[in-house]
Amino acid sequence: MTTFVALLRGINVGGNRRLPMTDVRRWVTEAGATEVVTYIQSGNVVLRHPGRSAGTLRDDLERRIEAATGWDIAVVVRTAAEWADLVAANPFPDAAPTSLHVACYRDPPAAGTLDALDLAAHAPETCALVGAQLYLHLPNGMGRATLPVALAKLRPGPGAAPLVTTVRNWRTVTTLLDLSSGR
What own/partner pairs with CB < 8 Å and gap ≥ 24 does 23-31 have? Predict the structure, then answer.
């Protein structure tokens, strides 16, 4: 039985794509999961599931959500071990937790994807890509930050679709660590 963290992208933000967490828990349970816990209303799910890869679980959850709602909701899935590694790999350990966010990519960006980004133009905001996570240090907060806007425009290549990602603040990241590690 593996513990997973599943992140639903773009739900219950600004009154858009409203999904009750009771429905999300039901769909996840119907996918064969047990011990399903949601954290706040923004699509954070911790679950246990037998014999599934993160990719297979992700695809199943996306299909179930689309069948129930008609919405194409991207889901990013990490094992509890990967989530613990994500927290341990924080390249900004001295940053105030309120200024730290993590963008979890569905798949690791190709080498060079962030090369076009002019980080100096966004100072004091900065970021660091570690595997399939982009750590964002935004000293003035997310609301006024320019770096996330620039990142959303990045493409892995000419004419390519945007990278599939979802962002969580550090408090949510560490709470999901606690939930997924049984603390």
Answer: 23/68, 24/65, 27/61, 27/64, 27/65, 27/68, 28/61, 30/64, 31/57, 31/60, 31/61, 31/64
pTM for the model stands at 0.91
How far is C-alpha 25 from the geometric centre of its chain's CA atoms? Answer: 17
Count of other CB atoms within 10 angstroms of residue 160: 11
Look at 110 and 63; give whichever has higher pLDDT: 63
* CA separation for the pair 105, 167 (Å, rounded): 9
The band of 115, judged by pLDDT with boundaries at 50, 70 and 90, is: confident
Tokens of 16: 């858009």
- The amino acid present at 14, given as its one-letter code, is G
